[in-house]
From TrEMBL:
<dbReference type="InterPro" id="IPR056877">
    <property type="entry name" value="Med14_C"/>
</dbReference>
<feature type="domain" description="Mediator of RNA polymerase II transcription subunit 14 C-terminal">
    <location>
        <begin position="1"/>
        <end position="86"/>
    </location>
</feature>
<dbReference type="Pfam" id="PF25069">
    <property type="entry name" value="Med14_C"/>
</dbReference>
<protein>
    <submittedName>
        <fullName>Mediator of RNA polymerase II transcription subunit 14</fullName>
    </submittedName>
</protein>
Length: 91
């Protein structure tokens, strides 16, 4: 299952919000939720994509999926809690 998340970081009003679009793949057979490997058009999003990938990899290592368990919600929650976008990130 492939879906896209747009995550926007809350920042003080004088600045524009920083956001990133994250392609997520959920493998129903294994229960793994990970970032889809999709080529990026903007080179500035590379750092944020690496951060997202690392957070999801760490989540999968620390919380292996049990049979029949869906990890989408828990993975996205971990991503939202652990991701801090660099100021120059725009997508």
């Amino acid at each position: 299952m492939l879906f896209f998340l747009q995550l926007t970081q809350r920042i003080p009003v004088p600045q524009e919000p920083v956001s990133i679009i994250v392609p997520i793949v959920y493998d129903m057979a294994t229960g793994l939720t990970q970032q889809a490997d999709i080529p990026r058009q903007h080179s500035s999003s590379g750092a944020a994509a690496l951060l997202v990938s690392n957070i999801l990899k760490r989540f999968n290592e620390l919380h292996p999926a049990r049979q029949g368990e869906c990890t989408i919600f828990a993975s996205v929650q971990e991503l939202m809690a652990g991701l801090t976008l660099p100021p120059s990130t725009r997508q």
